[in-house]
Give the backbone structure.
Amino acid sequence: MHTSKAAKKAEDLSLGSILSDNLKDALFPPHLVLVPQLNEVYELELAYYEAKILSDEEILRNGAYFASVDGKPTRHFLICQGEPLKLAEHSSSRLKSFFKTNQFKTGYGTHGLFPYRGKFHPQMIKGLINVMGLKPGMTVLDPMMGSGTVPLEATLMGMNSIGIDSSPFCAFMARAKIEGLKVPLNPIKTAMDHFDSTFKYLNTRVNRMEGPLRDKQASLFDGKPQDSRVQSNPAEVFRQPEVDDYLLLAFLDAKGYAERSNRKSFPDQFKAILERYYFVAEKIQKVMNGLQEQLGNARVMTGDARSMDIPSQTIDGIIFSPPYSFAIDYLKNDEHHLKFMGVDIDELRESMIGLRGRTLRQKYEIYLEDMTKVLSDCSRVLKSGGICSILVGTNNNQLSSIFQIEPEEVIGIHETLIEAGRRHGLELVRKIERQITGMANTMRSEFIVMLQKG
Ligand SMILES: C[S@@+](CC[C@H](N)C(=O)[O-])C[C@H]1O[C@@H](n2cnc3c(N)ncnc32)[C@H](O)[C@@H]1O
């Protein structure tokens, strides 16, 4: 069929106008500017919900995906701005130029300290906290907090939080990172100025297996004033629990690096890492003080996600990521640190989800039983109307070999958890797919599953 000249012209015009339409302009009002490097669909979705749920004031204070509101920079943009890491002098020029050109970094605050497998992306946690309707003063829980991304981010946002992990090392790591937001800097400087005695003290202590000083269940930031005195005696600085935690975390971080690579001697490695820890704490404290914002109160502890020491219906929202069936042996990864803390690893293994069972099939069955208990307890502690967000992926190849089916026929763990949640009063409200880069051979995507308590 022939189209008339006039109709063709109209078609061209509409094509032109369609193509000149900008998706971002269609989704967001003009006074909101997105952060740089927002390039994944799930991020655009979370940004869209933030724009719908948060007021302009709330976006300025706690938004995760906006750089400015009416030309005023958001707090998130300021926190992410600038050089994220103090690079060592000998770093390659490629690395230096990478950081120069990527001035906006989302590994802000103390989030980037200490490597931990399966760490959350902090900006995503901030976005999720917002779209789950959580506000400053409310309480968010991560029953399997690992390195503590959720309680740390909640603290930055002025929300209260509870973080639980069965590994005492995770509880220590999370506590030290949260304390880093307020740790007095002068004693750390003293420890750096007396590097040799600091190194000697920590080395003797670690070799003698004397664990962290503090009570595991202590609550953070309960109104204690910061100690800003300048200590000149390095032994004094370790008497302050938060300084002790922070220095010890840096030391264990360096020890891990030195064991994995022999590019530098252990003391040199510690020196570089200690400088970075100082730089990171100084930077986030400067930004937070400049913004004069209140930090939230975090309680991080060792515990079991299947039966939590938390009263019923007291939690406003839950975010967590379980081990993805039985892919990572977290105890093996942290064996050295756990031994240092005097933990009986065989005993701990019994409470770790994903590690029990002889055959793969048995492991999978026990994993599902355990995760059902976790969901049931999450439902118990959550207030009515509260949302529980779970980030989980499935290793289709692993499950296809257990069940002797094609990888495409495997039912994803997220689907199984949605069903288990439903049996315990948690209904699916949203499922967001997120691409995984870097481990595409075993897992291509993971899901953020949002369940609401009726
Ligand atoms: C995927 S990691 C969580 C990582 C975390 N989202 C982060 O940002 O670092 C899963 C965590 O579950 C913990 N875990 C395993 N079994 C547990 C249990 N029964 N109770 C509490 N935590 C458990 C592991 O120690 C591990 O740290």
Remarks:
- The longest helix spans residues 266-291.
- The two ends are 56 Å apart (CA to CA).
